[in-house]
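Handover notes (outgoing to incoming on-call)

Open items:
1. TIGR00266 family protein: sequence verified, structure written out, both below. Nothing else pending on this one.
2. Nothing else urgent.
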Amino acid sequence: MNNHEIEFKLYGDDMQFVEVELDPGETVVAEAGSLMMMEDHIEMETIFGDGSERQSGLVGKLFSAGKRVLTGESLFMTAFTNEGKVKKHVSFASPYPGKIIPMDLSEWEGKIICQKDAFLAAAKGVSVGIELQRKLGTGFFGGEGFIMQKLEGDGLAFVHAGGTIHKKVLQPGEKLRLDTGCLVAMTGEVDYNIEFVKGVKTALFGGEGLFFATLRGPGTVWVQSLPFSRLASRVFAAMPQTPGGSKGEGSMAKGLFDMFNGD
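TIGR00266 family protein C-alpha coordinates:
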Protein backbone atom coordinates (compact mmCIF):
# COMPACT_ATOMS: atom_id res chain seq x y z
CA MET A 1 0.00 0.00 0.00
CA ASN A 2 1.40 3.38 -1.05
CA ASN A 3 -1.43 5.47 0.43
CA HIS A 4 -2.28 6.21 4.04
CA GLU A 5 -5.06 3.92 5.28
CA ILE A 6 -7.67 6.27 6.70
CA GLU A 7 -11.10 5.52 8.13
CA PHE A 8 -14.18 7.71 7.75
CA LYS A 9 -17.83 8.29 8.63
CA LEU A 10 -20.45 10.19 6.62
CA TYR A 11 -22.97 12.49 8.31
CA GLY A 12 -26.13 14.08 6.96
CA ASP A 13 -28.33 13.45 3.96
CA ASP A 14 -28.50 16.29 1.42
CA MET A 15 -25.82 18.53 2.99
CA GLN A 16 -23.27 15.92 3.92
CA PHE A 17 -19.87 16.11 5.53
CA VAL A 18 -17.28 13.39 5.98
CA GLU A 19 -15.36 12.81 9.21
CA VAL A 20 -11.93 11.27 8.62
CA GLU A 21 -10.17 9.39 11.41
CA LEU A 22 -6.39 9.71 11.39
CA ASP A 23 -3.98 7.51 13.28
CA PRO A 24 -0.81 9.20 14.59
CA GLY A 25 1.27 10.26 11.59
CA GLU A 26 -1.50 9.78 9.03
CA THR A 27 -2.39 12.53 6.54
CA VAL A 28 -5.40 13.44 4.44
CA VAL A 29 -5.20 15.92 1.55
CA ALA A 30 -8.15 18.17 0.66
CA GLU A 31 -9.15 21.00 -1.62
CA ALA A 32 -8.60 24.45 -0.15
CA GLY A 33 -11.76 25.71 1.56
CA SER A 34 -13.33 22.30 2.20
CA LEU A 35 -12.40 22.08 5.91
CA MET A 36 -15.33 22.03 8.34
CA MET A 37 -13.66 21.26 11.69
CA MET A 38 -10.70 19.43 13.19
CA GLU A 39 -9.55 18.26 16.59
CA ASP A 40 -6.46 19.35 18.50
CA HIS A 41 -3.01 18.10 17.41
CA ILE A 42 -3.95 18.05 13.73
CA GLU A 43 -1.53 20.24 11.79
CA MET A 44 -2.38 21.98 8.53
CA GLU A 45 0.14 22.49 5.75
CA THR A 46 -0.33 24.13 2.35
CA ILE A 47 1.34 22.06 -0.37
CA PHE A 48 1.89 22.24 -4.11
CA GLY A 49 -0.23 19.76 -6.03
CA ASP A 50 -1.55 16.71 -4.20
CA GLY A 51 1.47 15.67 -2.12
CA SER A 52 1.55 12.18 -3.63
CA GLU A 53 4.68 10.10 -3.53
CA ARG A 54 4.79 10.14 -7.35
CA GLN A 55 6.05 13.70 -7.33
CA SER A 56 9.83 13.97 -7.23
CA GLY A 57 11.59 17.22 -6.45
CA LEU A 58 10.54 20.77 -7.19
CA VAL A 59 9.97 20.14 -10.91
CA GLY A 60 7.56 17.30 -10.22
CA LYS A 61 5.62 19.37 -7.69
CA LEU A 62 5.38 22.36 -10.03
CA PHE A 63 4.22 20.11 -12.88
CA SER A 64 1.54 18.57 -10.67
CA ALA A 65 0.37 22.00 -9.52
CA GLY A 66 0.33 23.27 -13.10
CA LYS A 67 -1.95 20.41 -14.17
CA ARG A 68 -4.43 21.44 -11.47
CA VAL A 69 -4.63 24.93 -12.96
CA LEU A 70 -5.94 23.39 -16.21
CA THR A 71 -8.88 21.92 -14.28
CA GLY A 72 -9.73 25.32 -12.78
CA GLU A 73 -8.49 24.41 -9.31
CA SER A 74 -6.00 26.21 -7.09
CA LEU A 75 -2.25 25.63 -7.34
CA PHE A 76 -2.32 24.55 -3.70
CA MET A 77 -3.95 21.85 -1.62
CA THR A 78 -4.03 21.46 2.15
CA ALA A 79 -2.59 18.49 4.03
CA PHE A 80 -3.96 17.60 7.49
CA THR A 81 -1.62 15.43 9.60
CA ASN A 82 -2.24 13.91 13.02
CA GLU A 83 0.79 14.99 15.04
CA GLY A 84 -0.64 13.59 18.29
CA LYS A 85 -0.24 10.21 19.96
CA VAL A 86 -3.87 9.04 19.68
CA LYS A 87 -6.47 8.97 16.93
CA LYS A 88 -7.85 12.33 15.87
CA HIS A 89 -10.63 13.48 13.53
CA VAL A 90 -10.94 16.09 10.79
CA SER A 91 -14.14 16.83 8.85
CA PHE A 92 -14.76 18.15 5.34
CA ALA A 93 -18.07 19.61 4.12
CA SER A 94 -19.88 19.51 0.80
CA PRO A 95 -19.77 22.84 -1.10
CA TYR A 96 -23.45 22.61 -2.17
CA PRO A 97 -26.43 20.22 -1.69
CA GLY A 98 -25.65 16.71 -2.79
CA LYS A 99 -23.82 13.56 -1.78
CA ILE A 100 -20.26 12.60 -0.90
CA ILE A 101 -19.13 9.39 -2.60
CA PRO A 102 -16.31 7.46 -0.90
CA MET A 103 -14.20 5.57 -3.43
CA ASP A 104 -11.60 2.95 -2.58
CA LEU A 105 -9.34 3.20 -5.63
CA SER A 106 -7.95 -0.28 -5.02
CA GLU A 107 -11.41 -1.63 -5.91
CA TRP A 108 -11.42 0.21 -9.25
CA GLU A 109 -8.06 -0.86 -10.64
CA GLY A 110 -6.38 2.17 -9.09
CA LYS A 111 -8.00 4.82 -11.31
CA ILE A 112 -11.17 6.93 -11.35
CA ILE A 113 -11.91 9.79 -13.76
CA CYS A 114 -14.20 12.52 -12.41
CA GLN A 115 -15.48 15.99 -13.24
CA LYS A 116 -12.95 18.72 -12.54
CA ASP A 117 -14.87 20.17 -9.56
CA ALA A 118 -15.91 16.84 -8.00
CA PHE A 119 -12.82 16.01 -5.90
CA LEU A 120 -13.15 16.80 -2.18
CA ALA A 121 -10.40 14.97 -0.25
CA ALA A 122 -8.24 11.84 -0.29
CA ALA A 123 -5.71 9.88 1.70
CA LYS A 124 -2.16 11.11 1.26
CA GLY A 125 -0.56 9.31 -1.65
CA VAL A 126 -3.53 9.50 -3.99
CA SER A 127 -2.44 11.29 -7.15
CA VAL A 128 -4.80 14.02 -8.42
CA GLY A 129 -4.02 14.70 -12.07
CA ILE A 130 -5.84 15.55 -15.29
CA GLU A 131 -7.39 13.37 -17.96
CA LEU A 132 -7.58 15.01 -21.39
CA GLN A 133 -10.20 13.57 -23.71
CA ARG A 134 -8.26 13.07 -26.93
CA LYS A 135 -11.17 12.86 -29.36
CA LEU A 136 -11.73 15.90 -31.55
CA GLY A 137 -15.45 16.19 -30.82
CA THR A 138 -14.88 16.02 -27.10
CA GLY A 139 -12.17 18.65 -27.26
CA PHE A 140 -14.15 21.26 -29.15
CA PHE A 141 -17.64 20.71 -27.77
CA GLY A 142 -17.36 18.83 -24.53
CA GLY A 143 -17.46 21.83 -22.24
CA GLU A 144 -17.38 20.39 -18.72
CA GLY A 145 -16.24 17.02 -20.02
CA PHE A 146 -13.13 18.02 -21.97
CA ILE A 147 -10.65 18.33 -19.11
CA MET A 148 -11.42 15.95 -16.25
CA GLN A 149 -9.63 14.98 -13.05
CA LYS A 150 -7.83 11.67 -12.71
CA LEU A 151 -7.53 10.03 -9.27
CA GLU A 152 -4.88 7.32 -9.10
CA GLY A 153 -3.58 5.17 -6.26
CA ASP A 154 -4.76 2.45 -3.90
CA GLY A 155 -6.30 4.56 -1.14
CA LEU A 156 -9.56 6.31 -0.31
CA ALA A 157 -10.81 9.36 -2.20
CA PHE A 158 -13.97 11.38 -1.62
CA VAL A 159 -15.93 12.82 -4.55
CA HIS A 160 -18.84 15.26 -4.22
CA ALA A 161 -21.82 15.55 -6.56
CA GLY A 162 -25.11 17.47 -6.60
CA GLY A 163 -28.62 16.16 -6.02
CA THR A 164 -29.19 12.41 -6.16
CA ILE A 165 -26.37 10.11 -7.24
CA HIS A 166 -27.02 7.12 -9.48
CA LYS A 167 -24.41 4.41 -10.00
CA LYS A 168 -24.75 2.47 -13.25
CA VAL A 169 -22.74 -0.53 -14.42
CA LEU A 170 -22.36 -0.66 -18.20
CA GLN A 171 -21.98 -4.01 -19.92
CA PRO A 172 -19.55 -4.44 -22.83
CA GLY A 173 -20.90 -2.41 -25.76
CA GLU A 174 -23.74 -0.88 -23.74
CA LYS A 175 -24.19 2.82 -24.50
CA LEU A 176 -25.44 5.62 -22.23
CA ARG A 177 -26.14 9.21 -23.30
CA LEU A 178 -26.42 12.04 -20.77
CA ASP A 179 -25.97 15.76 -20.27
CA THR A 180 -22.25 16.53 -19.98
CA GLY A 181 -22.71 18.23 -16.60
CA CYS A 182 -24.53 15.21 -15.11
CA LEU A 183 -21.48 12.96 -15.34
CA VAL A 184 -19.73 12.73 -11.95
CA ALA A 185 -17.17 9.98 -12.40
CA MET A 186 -16.36 6.84 -14.36
CA THR A 187 -13.87 4.01 -14.29
CA GLY A 188 -10.89 4.16 -16.60
CA GLU A 189 -12.09 1.59 -19.13
CA VAL A 190 -15.27 3.50 -20.08
CA ASP A 191 -15.15 4.96 -23.60
CA TYR A 192 -16.14 8.65 -23.43
CA ASN A 193 -17.16 10.87 -26.32
CA ILE A 194 -19.38 13.85 -27.24
CA GLU A 195 -22.32 13.47 -29.62
CA PHE A 196 -24.24 16.20 -31.48
CA VAL A 197 -28.00 16.43 -30.83
CA LYS A 198 -29.65 15.60 -34.16
CA GLY A 199 -32.49 17.72 -35.45
CA VAL A 200 -32.54 21.51 -35.83
CA LYS A 201 -35.76 21.89 -33.82
CA THR A 202 -34.33 19.86 -30.95
CA ALA A 203 -31.15 21.90 -30.91
CA LEU A 204 -32.84 25.30 -31.09
CA PHE A 205 -36.05 24.83 -29.12
CA GLY A 206 -35.57 21.73 -26.99
CA GLY A 207 -34.15 23.61 -24.02
CA GLU A 208 -31.17 21.26 -23.78
CA GLY A 209 -27.59 21.67 -24.92
CA LEU A 210 -26.44 21.04 -28.47
CA PHE A 211 -24.18 18.22 -27.32
CA PHE A 212 -24.35 15.40 -24.83
CA ALA A 213 -21.90 12.83 -23.50
CA THR A 214 -21.90 9.27 -24.75
CA LEU A 215 -20.45 6.54 -22.54
CA ARG A 216 -19.81 3.03 -23.79
CA GLY A 217 -19.12 0.04 -21.57
CA PRO A 218 -17.73 -1.97 -20.03
CA GLY A 219 -17.28 0.04 -16.86
CA THR A 220 -19.04 1.88 -14.05
CA VAL A 221 -20.33 5.46 -14.13
CA TRP A 222 -21.74 7.78 -11.45
CA VAL A 223 -24.40 10.30 -12.54
CA GLN A 224 -25.71 13.34 -10.63
CA SER A 225 -29.23 14.75 -10.92
CA LEU A 226 -28.28 18.37 -10.12
CA PRO A 227 -25.02 19.66 -11.61
CA PHE A 228 -23.79 22.85 -9.95
CA SER A 229 -23.82 24.69 -13.29
CA ARG A 230 -27.55 23.96 -13.64
CA LEU A 231 -28.26 25.04 -10.07
CA ALA A 232 -26.29 28.27 -10.53
CA SER A 233 -28.08 29.14 -13.79
CA ARG A 234 -31.51 28.69 -12.16
CA VAL A 235 -30.54 30.86 -9.19
CA PHE A 236 -29.16 33.57 -11.45
CA ALA A 237 -32.27 33.54 -13.64
CA ALA A 238 -34.52 33.95 -10.58
CA MET A 239 -32.60 36.88 -9.10
CA PRO A 240 -34.40 40.26 -9.29
CA GLN A 241 -32.93 42.91 -11.53
CA THR A 242 -31.36 46.04 -10.09
CA PRO A 243 -32.49 49.49 -11.32
CA GLY A 244 -29.57 49.45 -13.73
CA GLY A 245 -30.96 46.31 -15.35
CA SER A 246 -28.27 43.95 -14.06
CA LYS A 247 -28.59 40.97 -11.78
CA GLY A 248 -26.24 40.69 -8.86
CA GLU A 249 -25.74 39.02 -5.52
CA GLY A 250 -27.29 40.68 -2.51
CA SER A 251 -30.17 42.36 -4.36
CA MET A 252 -32.62 41.52 -1.57
CA ALA A 253 -30.23 42.67 1.14
CA LYS A 254 -29.55 45.87 -0.79
CA GLY A 255 -33.28 46.53 -1.06
CA LEU A 256 -33.75 46.19 2.68
CA PHE A 257 -30.77 48.47 3.28
CA ASP A 258 -32.20 51.13 0.97
CA MET A 259 -35.64 50.91 2.60
CA PHE A 260 -34.35 51.47 6.12
CA ASN A 261 -32.18 54.35 4.92
CA GLY A 262 -35.08 56.14 3.23
CA ASP A 263 -33.92 55.54 -0.37
